[in-house]
Amino acid sequence: VQFVESGGRSVQPGEFLRLSCTISGITFENQPLGWYRQAPGKGREWIATVRASDTTYYADSVRGRFTISRSNAKNTLYLQLRNLKPEDTAVYYCNVPGWEPSWGQGTQVTVSS
Q1: CB-neighbour burial class of residue 34 (10 A; exposed 0-12, middle 13-18, buried 19+)
Q2: Alpha-helical runs (H) found in 1-113
Q3: Is residue 33 within 8 Å of 70, Cβ to Cβ?
Q4: Is 81 within 8 Å of 35 (Cβ atoms)?
């Protein structure tokens, strides 16, 4: 299973980003998919999941600001990040919640004025 995350960059507080993750090696449309992040000096944390039914779940820290979505036609997972805060600075990863067979390189998001 391979995860390739992209779209991260340096932004100012309040700005918007969209992250993408292409996934290969799984039956994409049948799996729940999730985003995680790891801030400097901290452990990796789960932030959002989208089920095969398109039902979504969010961590309290991002609910109302981040939106997870998926394109089964493109085998791609997305995360829209709005109203970014300095505490959102982290490396962002995608994976299959409850399985996590491997990890990609992640994509760096830095929020700073």
Answers
A1: buried
A2: none
A3: yes
A4: no
d(CA 26, CA 31): 8
Give the closest residue to 19 by CA, choosing from 59, 54, 68. 68
* Predicted confidence (pLDDT) per residue in 9-59, tens digit: 999 999 999 999 999 998 999 999 999 999 999 999 999 999 999 999 999
The angle formed by the CA atoms of residues 79, 108 and 28, to the nearest 5 degrees, is 40
Task: Give me 41's structure tokens.
Answer: 């000096």
Query: What is the tens place of the pLDDT at every residue in 53-90?
Result: 999 999 999 999 999 999 999 999 999 999 999 999 99
Q: CA 33, 103, 3, 28 torsion: positive or negative?
A: negative
Kindly state the DSSP code that residue 30 receives in the 8-state scheme: G
Model confidence at 101: pLDDT above 90: no
Read off the amino acid at residue 77: L
Q: What is the rounded CA–CA span in Å between residue 62 and residue 29?
A: 25
Distance CA 16, CA 74 (A): 23
